[in-house]
Amino acid sequence: MLQLDEVSAWYGQARALDAVTLTVETGQTHALVGANGAGKSTLLRLLCGLVPVYTGTITLNGKPYDPRKASADGVALVPEGRLLFDSLTVEENVILGARDRAGPWSLTALYALFPILSEKRHARPSDLSGGQQQMVAIARALATNPAVLLCDEIALGLAPAVVGDVYVALARVRAQGMTVLLVDQDIARACRVSTHVTCLLKGRVSHQAPAAGVTAQSLRAAYFGVA
Ligand code: ATP
């Protein structure tokens, strides 16, 4: 279980997260939604040590969690915009994430999850389609054999059919018992694959509930801050 208590973060003088309390249960998928600028990416980046924790505490499976040791502690990020290295091949990008940790996500397993990446393993990321690049980013994160996978807008800019492929792959990852914290602008899609949903508004938690039954309409006030 990943537990955040009263976590705050700042960019200089601007508060990006304000006393965020959030529980992501082991083996479950938790959706993080909210308008542009609500703080979703900041929260994921904070969990990987890319944004410092200003106040608050975080525990992972009951032990204090230091985001600066995210990779060693089994927390991996699929970043918004993918951030692949084009000077490396597809395969080199993927194994960049590999760690000396036992787990199901060997290179063979990753190629079984994304067969197209096996075919393209010697290509450069820029020679791949957007969907294939997203698969590389997901594979790179999985190669660390994480306990918790953080996914930031993995559908962004992809054609609907390709989004379907990416989410089918994510379902297979979730079926292996992965704990997932997922940012998606599409509330319906995020809630379909999640057990719980947290909505952020201006860096604060504005709504938290089981995902079943949550709709864009029911989240309107929490999302936009209007009744
Ligand atoms: P989006 O859907 O647009 O990605 P988000 O919910 O992920 O939005 P964040 O990107 O976390 O929101 O941004 C939260 C707030 O922090 C916003 O007000 C944003 O302008 C600000 N912010 C984000 N990154 C930085 C940065 N590097 N420096 C300064 N302010 C930042």
Notes on the structure:
The chain is of the alpha/beta class and 227 residues long. Helices cover 31% and strands 27% of the residues. It contains nine helices and ten strands. It has a six-stranded mixed sheet with strand order 6-7-8-3-9-10, sandwiched between helices. Strand 9 (196-201) and strand 10 form a beta hairpin. The longest helix has 16 residues, at 160-175. The protein is globular and about 50 Å long. The structure holds adenosine-5'-triphosphate (ATP). Adenosine-5'-triphosphate (ATP) is lined by residues 11, 14, 16, 34, 36-42. Keywords: Amino-acid transport, ATP-binding, Nucleotide-binding, Transport. Pfam families: ABC_tran.
**Helix share, percent:** 25-40%
Bound molecules: adenosine-5'-triphosphate
Number of helices: 9
Q: For the record, give the distance between the C-alpha atoms at the N and C termini, rounded to a whole number.
A: 33 Å
Query: pLDDT average, as an integer?
Result: 93
One letter per element, helices H and strands E, the order comes to: EEEHEEHEHHHHEHEHEEH
- Give a short account of the largest sheet: 6 strands, mixed
Strand order of the largest sheet: 6-7-8-3-9-10
Please count the beta strands (DSSP E, at least 2 residues each): 10
Structural class: alpha/beta
Low-confidence stretches: none
How much of the sequence lies in strands comes to 25-35%
Radius of gyration: 17 Å
Q: What overall form do the CA principal axes indicate?
A: globular
